[in-house]
Amino acid sequence: MKKVHIIGLGLLGGSFALALKKAFPGIRITGTDHNQQHQEEAVQIGLIEEIKDVAAPDTDLILIATPVHTIPDLLRSVLGKIDKNTLVMDFGSTKAQICQSIADHPNRENYLAAHPIAGTEFSGPKAAIDHLFSGKILILCELEKTNLELKGKAYEIFEALGVKLRFMGPMEHDNQLAYVSHLSHISSFMLGKTVLDKMEDDKNILNMAGSGFSSTVRLAKSSPAMWTPIIKENKSNILEALNQYINNLMEFRDEIVQDDYKKLFKKMEEINRIGNLLNLEK
Amino acid sequence: MKKVHIIGLGLLGGSFALALKKAFPGIRITGTDHNQQHQEEAVQIGLIEEIKDVAAPDTDLILIATPVHTIPDLLRSVLGKIDKNTLVMDFGSTKAQICQSIADHPNRENYLAAHPIAGTEFSGPKAAIDHLFSGKILILCELEKTNLELKGKAYEIFEALGVKLRFMGPMEHDNQLAYVSHLSHISSFMLGKTVLDKMEDDKNILNMAGSGFSSTVRLAKSSPAMWTPIIKENKSNILEALNQYINNLMEFRDEIVQDDYKKLFKKMEEINRIGNLLNLEK
């Protein structure tokens, strides 16, 4: 791994750069970001060596780590310019439309669709941390469509990042992620909104908030520039998950109205097992 | 602080005992719990010196740390048996019905209504930790109704716990807590249910869950034995908050259906400020 080019120098792109620098001393990383300030910060804090619009011809890997709606165009453009030995990977949070957009591209085998389940509620190059991916899940889609040698290169990188790999189809990916990621961001944003609205009457209400509230509302700090496109790209799956969630809340609400506390107790008891399933103790 | 009696030896009662032992060497703590096993564990792991149904006559403080629905009866019974120098305090998560239940009690001035905004999603004496209250908010209601000397005793304890005090009326307390505590427990339980239901079709879905999901669903591990009574006691306030939350989710859902991404972006951007308000960076 000698030359890497990163398009999008935010939390994911920046953290990827830091992890590679640690794992491959002497690596040369170039990059670009449509945000001028982020681009300059990325050089200043040493995420990349040089700002470059286009990757050098002998680049080992080009990573696209921009908001999902920009990825199909970028990906087609990048795939049109590379040579045979360059692997192209993206970190988009939805995968179906991206995979479909380059399905028939002559250089399809140079591409690998990836999604790291890693992030914080912060964004931008300054939020980058070298261990962001360590121990985290990385989902790969349509691995069979990537060239064998380039797959070898990819595995070298994944080992350096310390990720745990999962494999699934892009449609399945987008549906499941709507439930375990996109929905919890929306629930958190709306919890934040509900309390902020209440704050107009009770301005000191947040003084009463404990760590439980902070934990559930943490994701409401997430970037709208990242999340608006995810909602758009994954609209139908998100609507499915969101409607299920609203139905569950309304059913719970109705059980409170009906004073059906036995049912509420039993329901909460059944849900408790999610703690063990997620190893929340750890 | 020489003699303390604790009714309810769970997470709160147990952690209170540990904090007092640290702050007041030589203190003698007795206690009781309707759960036989918890009671014995509390002695075994050294939370209390001795199991006792009733406090000794010269006890400095009796703490009631049981589920909220049991507090009014226990409190009346305890207040009926104490001498003038004993302070009685409860840690119930709702305060209006409790304060009302002893409003006319001849020993009202021996009572102080308290609610520490502290806890974890675990319960029982083994979950007790000595620093649970350190740096946390503790809300006091109707402080003016407590005897001056006993208030002095209470302040000595609060200083030892390291809590930050807040003062408010019991009605205001219950309404605000519905928003910043009770609602986020329900939102978390229902998020857990939505994903568990989905798991019936996609049994590996939790393999895809990242730290964001874990954070929002953490409270779904909370004890139904604690939360069912809270929902019952604070029914009207919880319904108010829950209905606001459901309305906000439905509005967000409708904006997705209508592809109104500009509005969604702006909305999420406005909610972002809750991060700064809660100092979530820290």
Automatic annotation (TrEMBL), chains A, B:
Residues 2-282 form the Prephenate/arogenate dehydrogenase domain. This is Prephenate dehydrogenase. PROSITE patterns: PDH_ADH. GO terms for molecular function: prephenate dehydrogenase (NAD+) activity. The keyword Oxidoreductase applies. It holds the Pfam family PDH_N. Keywords: Oxidoreductase. It comes from Echinicola jeungdonensis. InterPro entries: 6-PGluconate_DH-like_C_sf (IPR008927), NAD(P)-bd_dom_sf (IPR036291), PDH_C (IPR046825), PDH_N (IPR046826), Preph/Arog_dehydrog (IPR050812), Prephen_DH (IPR003099). The keyword Oxidoreductase applies. Its EC number is 1.3.1.12.
